[in-house]
């Protein structure tokens, strides 16, 4: 077969929710077809490398199951029976139903719901214009960053770190609680450069031997939810063996005798009992980072998806503050640079239109909210109508049984704007077809590096697909809103946002595709002090200050929080009936529930599986490849057992969000996860579930 003729290569940006935000070169075959997708050579962080799932993006853009026109449900909820309707019919019906709900139950009975299917700000956050102008219920964003961001800020005072390209100048890279080979492959590019060029040591901390750990010099497999114990024991050793930088701490931190006394009891033996590591492993790790000034801590999200994740992140961040790693090029830490963009997003979110002070509903609690939990509803009335863009809660949200029960309510009018007929779309009254990133204009940020990137429309949109921005505009106008914000086009909103933010004009940005937002190195490494008023890193966090900075809402009694960096033993406890701890770690070829519809990714991931230690399998009579049920009080899920060493006994790992229907019985992995908000400010503890496992055939 002849190779298709590439008419040009277009610069774009990966829109998905992955910290790498890769700059892409996309081969355009004709006005509506793409060919190969490659990582941009001239982007210093992407450095030619992208993940395999996006390299195969033609499979997703040109997928035969893409939604092409609006649909109205004809059968019962969840039946999958729909009829084709026109955009006018769809929008008229939505406007009529929303108006009716507002008249009967008030504006707060309507809850627009979105997340990060695209990370383009215009198409992701523009739904808030409608929400603000109508006074609909607000969305409290917790599902991804609810624990990790507060934990990071509690120490440093702001969300930003050292440019990750500097990992290449490091002598020790600590990859903590992220499976970067799966979730942000570019971390490996730069860490491996340091290893090859400088002989840097790579440390990986996870709860099983991941593909990332396979590349480490020191792999630490801890029991789930015990990273805080490891961190404080490392600090105990640093102080005991004179490896702490006391001069740095005196100048830059709140270090004092009370904290030192607190650490005295956190011995390696104490931590060994909690983490499952040996005293030697803990000591070796402490000595490595204590004797390597250029140690770079790349903190992931995974270890914060435990109920104690916020305090674990804070505790881990205390280590570079104690060694003074921040002082050296190639040293310091990064979790996310999302606090560094200084964007004025008012043109996108319609902040000036905000009507009243509607309640904040926690997105992670969609199950409890839709099933009438009074606490989750903040004492207000039920949610009666939703428009969902950019997210697939029937798959990704915790406590799937409750989520499905809520979405199936006959008295809930549900609109889903999607690229595919997802599990959530299956429950919809009206389904609307969405464009993909190559078919609309937007700009993108992600916390994993220092650039803001622009991605223009480069191919024609297929069928009757419309962008998120266009749908919100059309709906707003039909609902009688007349503000000019609802008459804009996406490109102009990007340009206006750049203008309001003091960024270069879009015409200039378009030429290169990016805005460089690297901060001066000294600022990024807090050389002029941390971002609290006294400029000191906090070993004793003040969580109220964190809440005040970011507008977080407390979900626990502040008095219950540990005073100092510590292990907080609040994860879901195992018991005789639920003797295993389950984590739902990321699959390499899926991105949350995205890509679980593409053939290449499905082939790569195979059937939904669960890893189990050989001793546990032998004890329970479970064979490799056999069907098992994994369950708890929230429900049970059928999976295929994979016997694997490299994880502790008593721990089960189920990688990825396969389609719910790929599981025998149709229940997805989030049936097992808990929607109760994690302390102190909410968030879903996706890797924290006590479960049983048994043979199921
Ligand atoms: N291929 C792929 N890429 C993705 C995603 C995906 O689903 N698939 N998701 C995207 C999104 S939305 C995000 S936010 C990022 C998240 O990416 P990461 O920061 O990598 O976070 P997680 O994917 O939650 O989990 C990472 C690792 O944390 C481990 N872990 C779980 N509990 C603990 C613990 O208690 N201690 C320690 N030390 N480790 C633990 C898990 O086993 C897993 O290997 O990745 C993005 N990229
Ligand atoms: N068990 C378990 N559950 C998890 C996690 C976990 O580690 N374990 N991770 C959690 C995390 S970190 C996150 S961030 C959430 C993410 O959850 P989601 O934000 O729901 O992410 P995706 O599953 O990728 O779904 C995004 C949906 O948006 C659609 N979409 C993409 N672009 C557009 C667009 O331009 N317009 C419209 N209208 N739709 C679009 C896609 O087709 C896809 O169906 O999942 C969480 N769920
Ligand atoms: S998913 Fe992540 S690694 Fe893959 S192309 Fe997108 S930004 Fe890059
Ligand atoms: Mo996420």
Structure overview:
This protein has 26 helices and 25 strands. The mean pLDDT is 97. The strands form six sheets. A six-stranded mixed beta sheet has the order 5-4-16-15-14-6, covered by helices on one side. A six-stranded mixed beta sheet has the order 21-23-22-25-20-24. A five-stranded parallel beta sheet has the order 10-9-8-11-12, with helices on both faces. The two termini are 46 Å apart. α6 runs parallel beside α14 and α9 runs parallel beside α14. Helices cover 30% and strands 17% of the residues.
Ligand types: ligand MGD, iron/sulfur cluster, molybdenum atom
Main sheet attributes: strand count, strand direction, barrel closure: 6 strands, mixed
Q: Approximately how much beta-strand content do the residues carry?
A: 15-25%
**CATH level 3 topology of the largest domain:** Rossmann fold
Counting H and I runs of at least 4 residues, what is the number of helices?
Answer: 26
**Shape summary:** globular
When the domains are counted, the total is 3
The neighbouring-strand order within the major sheet is 5-4-16-15-14-6
CATH level-1 class of the largest domain: Alpha Beta
**Overall pLDDT score:** 97
**Terminal Cα span:** 46 Å
Tell how many strands the DSSP assignment holds: 25
Structural class determined from secondary elements: alpha/beta
